[in-house]
Amino acid sequence: MAETILLTLRRLNRLIALLVGVLLMGCAAFVLADIVLRQIGSSLGGTDEISGYVMAIATAWGMGYTLIELGHVRIDLLRSRAGSRARAFFDLAAMLALSMTVTMIAIKGWPVLARSLKNNSHANTPLETPLALVQAPWFAGWIWFALVAWATFAAAVMLLARGKFTESEAAIGTFGELDALK
Fold first, then answer.
1. Fewest C-beta in 10 Å: which of 6, 48, 55, 122?
2. How large a percentage of the chain has pLDDT more than 70?
């Protein structure tokens, strides 16, 4: 069961990473087109605003992928000197803290989106972008990150309950510099 959860999350997050990559490439093409147009005396306008929105959305959606790929930064001074059981404890504590933090961010993100929807809020910029248009995918990315974090935590607990310390470490451990040298 735990392995299925982790495999499904990995597959879904790779697909999401590809979609986010396409979004970022589209944004880069948009900025490049604006730069070229500026050279001939014209402009699309709003590239700074739009690229900021794209970065916020890409970051929110990319964090779940980064979690699954063990890409989040963690200080592992104590963990690296510990045995497998202690490492499992540190890993679970870190995942629990991350899951709770991300959940709190997602919960606090909803009132922001709800207020924008209620007030039909627009950006105070020349584009007057409807804020809910940007905040909805940003908020959804945080929800996804929270779901991925809790599902990964649950899978690790299942693995540890079966004594699979190596598999749990592969799911929620760290990928440090020492690991890269091995």
1. 48
2. 96
Q: So where are the chain's domains?
A: 1-179
Residues 128, 130, 133, 136, CA torsion sign: positive
In this prediction, residue 175 has a pLDDT band, given cuts at 50, 70 and 90, of low
Instruction: Take residue 41 and report the two structure tokens written for it.
Output: 């005396």
User: 60 Cβ partners below 8 Å, 6+ apart?
Assistant: 137, 138, 139, 140, 141, 142, 144, 145
pTM for the predicted model, two decimal places: 0.88
Nearest-angstrom CA–CA distance, 22 and 68: 20
Cβ proximity of 171 and 25 under 8 Å: no
For residue 57, the tally of other CB atoms under 10 A from its CB is 22
- State pLDDT tens for residues 87-121: 888 899 999 999 999 999 999 999 999 999 999 99
